[in-house]
Structure formats: C-alpha cells, structure tokens
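Our consortium's second objective concerns turning raw sequence data into structural hypotheses that experimental partners can test. To show how far this objective has progressed, the report includes one record in full. It was chosen at random from the queue rather than selected for favorable results. The single chain below, 376 residues long, was entered without modification.
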Amino acid sequence: MITPQSFYRNLTNSGIGFFSGVPDSLLKSFCAYLQDHCSDEEHVIAANEGNAVAMGIGHHLASNNVPLIYLQNSGLGNVINPLLSLADPKVYGIPMVLLIGWRGEPGVQDEPQHVKQGCVTESLLETMGVPCEKLTPDMDDLAAHQALKSLVQKTTEQKRPGALLVSKGTFDAYVLQKKTPNVFPLFREQAIQCVVNELSENDIIVATTGVTSRELFEYRASLKQGHDRDFLTVGGMGHASQIALGIALQKKDRQVICLDGDGAMLMHMGAMAINAASCCENLKHIIINNGAHDSVGGQPTVTMQIDILNLATALGYSTVLCGETEADIKQQIRSLREVKGPALLEIKTKRGFRKNLGRPTQTPIQNKNELMKRLN
C-alpha cells in the first residue's frame, strides 16, 4: 500500500504544490492528509471537478507549475469540457496531474452505478489523449514514486493533462484530524426519519447520492414499507433536484420532495435557479446540511459559511424554511406540504453515519420500475 505522507512528499518534491478536487472514497486518506497539512491557498475543495480543473489551469498560468486535481472517475463527466476545450495541447496545452479513484474497476466488486463508468474509464482517458499510469494496492511508496515521476515527465514535456488511476485499497489509512465542532442535535439519518414520518403515501421522494439514499432505503425497510415512493439517485451527484423537478412538472397532483445534500447542492448550484424559476408548486427542496462530504471521508464543504436561506430567497423560491430539532422538522414539513412551491427547507445536522449502514438491496432497475408503476 501507499502511505499518504510519502505520496504527498513525492508530489511536492516533483514541484506540485497546488491541490484541488472533489473528495472520493478511494482517495479519502490522501484527501484527509491534504486537508490536515495544506494551507487554504495550497488546497481547495472544489464545488465540482470541472471547477477544480479550472483552478488548476489558473494555478499553472500564474506559477508555471503542475497542479494536482483529484476526483472519482464518475467526475470525469464534469472535467471533459475544460480538459478538451482548454487544457488540451491543441488549445492551451496545460500540464496537470489527475488523481482518479477508479470505482467500478473491471474485476473489482463495486456498486451498480460504478460498473459502466469503471469499464470505460481507461478508454475514455485514451480517447481524450490523457496519458495514464496506475496505482495499485501491491505497490509500495517507491513504486508509486516511479509512476508519478514518469507521469509528471510526460505531462510537462507534452504540455497536456495526465492521469494516475487509483485502484481500491491503494492508500494506507489516514484519518482526518481537522474537524470543525458541529453542535447540531440530530444526525442526518434522524432528520430523514423525521421527514418521512410527516409525509403522506402519495408523496414522492428523490434522494441524493451516497449515504442519504442508503439511510432512506433502510428506514423504509425498518417500517416494512415498499420503496416505490422513492427514487434513489445513486449516481449523478448534484442532479437530484432536477430529477425531482422533472417528476413534479409531470405529476402536479403529488408533492415531490428532493432530499438533497450540501455537497451535492454546491456541485450544481445553478439547479436552484432553475427550480425557483420553474414556479412548480408541488416541488419541495430539502437540503440536509452537515457541512461535509460525509459519504467519502467527511472533508468539509463551505455550506456552513454561506447563507443558503437568503440565497434561495434571492433566487426566487416562494417559501424558505429552516430547522434543526425534531420539533422544528415536524412543524416545517407540515408547513412545506401546505405552501405552494418551489419551496426550500434547510435542515442542519451533525456529521457522521452508522458504520453498520447497509446498501440498497434492490437494483437501480428494480427501483426505477417500482417507482414508474406507482407514478403511471
């Protein structure tokens, strides 16, 4: 395995001193090390992966140094545009290192939403002309240094982005030390349960990527309820509220509730403007805000530093509410169901989730078919 400390040292010795990206579970030890050992000028957790590439481009223009951009391979969709239309050698020729967590790697067991992306990751990078090296669990720090050295040489000489593909289990464990105190009374799972308890059988939930969907699925199972009222957005981080809007526009006789996360909301914040402008009366947007990328290691987001309620008001949401306690949530969900949308409720919660939290036992296809049967 590769130690985050040694890998970071080799990066800085190679002249790489700026880091940006979106945290990934396969890279969480390295991302945590960055958070603990870099200044805010050296390391920026981006809203989305394309933004991180853009910051890397700016860093290179200002310093002539090579940046490192980290992401899960699912984030390749967000980086294709800036990689090809800006960083490619046929345009501006920007050298950078992409550190990519390889979810769904062929031959490695993973969740359904990662399988297709994992199969096409190498060919996608090849099609884009991005040279690639692999980091695997059987490599030690010296072998990782050689792979890094080779890639940095290619990206510098050819003035193009290059990628390090990271297999599951490659990085040794490192636990984030810099954790801002979080004093809110509830965990996200408790907040989700409070929300579900106040909804009717006719209401539809669209739950965001990661732990939120898992916690919703398990709560439905504990209540011995079916899952046909819920759409679990197991991939496509940041798109849940637009899926909810698409349903709400077609099914105006139903309340459609988006259970969103703060990191997901940040990733494609423009969706909030579209939600508000839609004037869709049955769309209810709930943002569960714990100020962290909880599903992939707990690295912080900036959502505790911004005023989501004023933002939603300025964008044009008809009603904007907030809550923290069980009593708050109970009252605000009842209000939310009564008002005309688009309406928004922010629920602030603690970070963290149960270590024994399971994963959906239904396939995405089964989830889709059950929901569509109820809707149609």
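The partners drew two points from this record. The two ends are 50 Å apart (CA to CA). The CA atoms of residues 207 and 213 lie 5 Å apart. Both points have been shared with the crystallography group to help prioritize constructs.
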